[in-house]
Specification:
Blueprint: H1 2-63, E1 67-76, H2 104-110, H3 113-123, H4 132-138, E2 139-145, E3 148-155, H5 158-177, H6 182-214, H7 220-258, H8 267-273, H9 276-295, H10 304-332, H11 347-421, E4 428-436, E5 446-447, H12 450-492
Antiparallel strand pairs: 1-3, 1-4, 1-5, 2-3
């Protein structure tokens, strides 16, 4: 009985133990099924999110206008590659730089308002909504290597792309052909100034020549000295003549008194006035004196005409004096002369009358000389005033000429130094002209923008999430069942 009970209890224990072991996998399967329920709920949320993302991305792609792109390439080959210059440091995007090596600093300059804004202004008439910010945002400049740049531009309007690229290409080439370095700008400035200064020097020389020619001047300093000397000489002669006239008048008055004649009894003067030969010689002498005064207007240092007139004046003066000496005898021998005056009957009185005739002739010559000297004095005064003005103008012209000549020489010297120190500039050239992006058939085609790529990525992500949401629950359930069955098999053997 005891043995039988022990055997039954042992068999009962064996039977009860497997039942306890089997219950654990069942609980685990239940947990997996609960987790599967939670996953299914989350998957439905993810699927809804994926659907929203995909719909939004598709809607964005539908409403976004296609973008067109064009590009061109620039090449820079340094003329003097042996001399390398340090890369300039750009403090201002509007600063100009030498185009000896293409780098990021130069790309900033090429995209700067200095170059782009004029293009925008030129295209405003054709593209009213174009502005600098839009162009800068759509403009891409990439340095493929130190000597090549790729310039690309994109817009929803292919015509806008074409126009902007054409203008950019021209602006960049023109910009690179300008002097960029300080030395080169200095050379350009000097080269523009030299012709102007040369023209100013030439003009001043021409003005000086015209000044001489218009005023009959050959040697201004010498002629000014001549006028000064003549003025001094005329003043001296005038003073001497005035003194001689005073003495001659006194002598004539004394002779009149000795002959007991009144001042208005001009017998000596009447004798001379009635002598045709004397009057003819006196007239000739007066004409020569006038010519001498006129000839003083000529400022030639050596004047043959003046010398000839002086010689003629001396001859006439000598002839006039001789005729005055003979005038009394001619008068006395004239049958028509009035000799009733007792003065003609007295020998002493005739001697005084002869002296009086000579004195009157002397006074006539002195007065003629005085008139000539007065005329000469006026001419010299006018000439001196004229020469003073001319001398002032000449001084101004000469000073300006010397200044301009000095500036011209400084420019030439500085140009020589700058050319020796300045490296040769490098100009950008279009290695590939502006062209639009085309497909295999040669038609202009649009490109996918970054926003379109982003929207496409979102759509792809949404699709993947959607697929995961559909496949996920079945996959989890299948895995859970397989795990539960495997555990049961391990327990039951």
């Amino acid at each position: 009985m005891e043995a039988t009970q022990v055997a039954i209890s042992l068999s009962h224990k064996r039977l009860s133990e497997p039942e306890l072991q089997v219950s654990q996998p069942e609980l685990q399967v239940v947990r997996l099924e609960g987790g599967q329920s939670n996953i299914s709920c989350r998957v439905r949320v993810v699927a809804g999110l994926a659907l929203a993302l995909t719909s939004g991305a598709i809607a964005q792609n539908v409403h976004q206008a296609p973008q067109y792109e064009g590009k061109f390439e620039l090449a820079a080959a340094p003329v003097n590659a042996a001399r390398s210059l340090p890369s300039p440091q750009i403090q201002d995007v509007n600063q100009t730089i030498p185009v000896s090596a293409l780098n990021s600093d130069q790309i900033q300059v090429l995209k700067s308002p200095m170059l782009v804004e004029p293009i925008v202004e030129r295209l405003k008439a054709q593209i009213p909504d174009l502005d600098y910010a839009a162009v800068k945002e759509s403009l891409q400049i990439t340095a493929n290597d130190p000597q090549h740049l790729e310039v690309s531009y994109r817009d929803a309007n292919p015509q806008t792309v074409h126009l902007v690229l054409e203008q950019l290409a021209k602006a960049y080439v023109d910009y690179s052909q300008q002097c960029q370095s300080d030395r080169c700008r200095g050379i350009a400035f000097i080269e523009t100034q030299i012709p102007q200064v040369q023209q100013q020097v030439k003009q001043r020389r021409t003005e000086i020549e015209q000044l001489y020619r218009q005023n009959g001047i050959k040697n201004l300093d010498a002629q000014m000295g001549l006028v000064t000397a003549r003025t001094t000489e005329v003043a001296k002669q005038k003073a001497e003549v005035n003194g001689k006239i005073l003495q001659a008048n006194q002598q004539y008055t004394e002779l009149q008194s000795r002959m007991a004649l009144q001042p208005n009894e001009a017998i000596a003067a009447n004798i001379l006035s009635q002598n045709p030969r004397y009057q003819g010689l006196l007239s000739q002498l007066q004409v020569v004196d006038q010519k001498l005064a006129i000839e003083f207007k000529q400022l030639d240092i050596s004047n043959p005409r003046l010398e000839a007139l002086n010689a003629q004046h001396q001859i006439l003066l000598s002839q006039l004096n001789q005729e005055a000496q003979q005038a009394l005898q001619r008068y006395l021998s004239n049958p028509g002369a009035n000799l009733q005056n007792p003065i003609f009957q007295d020998k002493a009185s005739l001697n005084l009358l002869q002296q009086s005739v000579v004195t009157v002739n002397y006074l006539q010559v002195l007065k003629t000389t005085q008139q000539r000297l007065v005329q000469m004095e006026g001419v010299l005064k006018q000439q001196r005033s004229q020469l003073t003005k001319v001398l002032y103008q000449y001084g101004q012209f000469r000073q300006d000429l010397e200044s301009k000549t000095q500036i011209l020489q400084q420019y030439l010297d500085q140009l020589k130094v700058l050319k020796a120190q300045s490296p040769q500039q490098t100009a950008l050239q279009i290695s590939s002209p502006p062209q639009m992006l085309e497909d295999s058939t040669g038609k202009i085609t649009s490109i996918e923008s970054d926003d379109q790529n982003y929207a496409g990525a979102i759509a792809a992500l949404g699709i993947l999430l959607g697929v995961g949401a559909i496949v996920g629950p079945n996959l989890v359930g299948s895995v859970a069942k397989r795990v539960g069955l495997q555990k049961v098999r391990q327990v039951t053997g």
